[in-house]
Amino acid sequence: MRPLVLCELAVTDLRNLARTTLRPSPRVTVISGPNGHGKTSLLEAAYLAATSRSFRTSKLGELPRHGCERGEVTATFTRDGLSCVQEVVIEGGRRAVRAEGKRPRSLAAFATRSPVVCFHAGELELSQGAAAGRRTLLDRVALFFDPVSADDRERYEDAMRQRKRALDERGPTARELDAFEALAATHGARLTVARRRTAQALAEVTRRWFERIAPRGLALGAEYAPGGVDDAARFATELSLRRGRDHARGSAGFGPHRDDVALSLDGHPARAVASQGQHRALTIALKLGELDLVAEAAAALPVFLLDDVSSELDQARTAALFEVLAERQGQLLITTTRPELIDTARFSDRLDLSVRDGALG
What we know:
Blueprint: E1 5-14, E2 17-22, E3 28-32, H1 39-51, E4 70-79, E5 82-91, E6 94-99, H2 107-111, E7 116-119, H3 131-145, H4 148-170, H5 177-213, E8 220-225, H6 232-241, H7 243-249, E9 260-265, E10 268-269, H8 270-273, H9 276-298, E11 303-307, H10 309-312, H11 315-326, E12 332-336, E13 350-356, E14 359-360
Parallel strand pairs: 3-12, 3-13, 7-11, 11-12
Antiparallel strand pairs: 1-2, 1-4, 4-5, 5-6, 8-9, 9-10, 13-14
């Protein structure tokens, strides 16, 4: 399987980056510098160019540089000898995207052209934080296997918002509830199917990675815990029966917005029994699982962005991660405050760059 390679990243007025061009190594690029000078912003720009989203915020209006109304990023990727240019412009809290100078048919189509996976500080909550992070992981992977799942999620969420508004304003007897619940049931059932398939595949590959990097004899369990059902008729019936309860509590107690992936160690909930080292090993296993599944679906090794990994992981877990990555041929972009701690002796073509005050040096 051939790797996707980010050849050039041109950033204008994003975060604290005024006008910056990054030309990384096709294998390993280590970007160092003090905190707050733009290291993470460079990775965020690369992620934005590939996916149209930020891994740091859902508020697009935060991305343009202070005092600027517009920010933009252009990335050139190569894959199997062919190049692809992707552009994202953020202005007025909205985004405009182009691939090869043309508008894609959907944001999902844009986000799956050039597969990128990111490890950042927030990912450490995957094993011990709220279920929302694990749902997001499922949706990122599902996007590559079933791009329509993104549309199903958006339509489900919109229908459920309309249902809640009707309940809040007119109560459980509101006439429009049947229509909103039918829409929510159709798209919610499809989303449940996509997430179940993704969760099953992710669980299998995550267990294999965990067995390799965690203490021997420790059994990982990962099971999809659906909040809804995959049958639209049953889904709609359940929503109808729950109108009174949902009205009283102010939120819906049924549906894929309550999905989770239940993680366990030797049969006990990981959140309750795992040590910090075990949580980190589990997080790494989940991210390697994401890498493997995205690579399989995209038929290309994704670019892997690692933000300040030496600070977020202890020495043992960092060594285990880089041992695995050395066996793969994918491109790595790594940020750190201490480049001497990044052991890439097993790798070739390491490029070291530094960032200060938003400028590469």
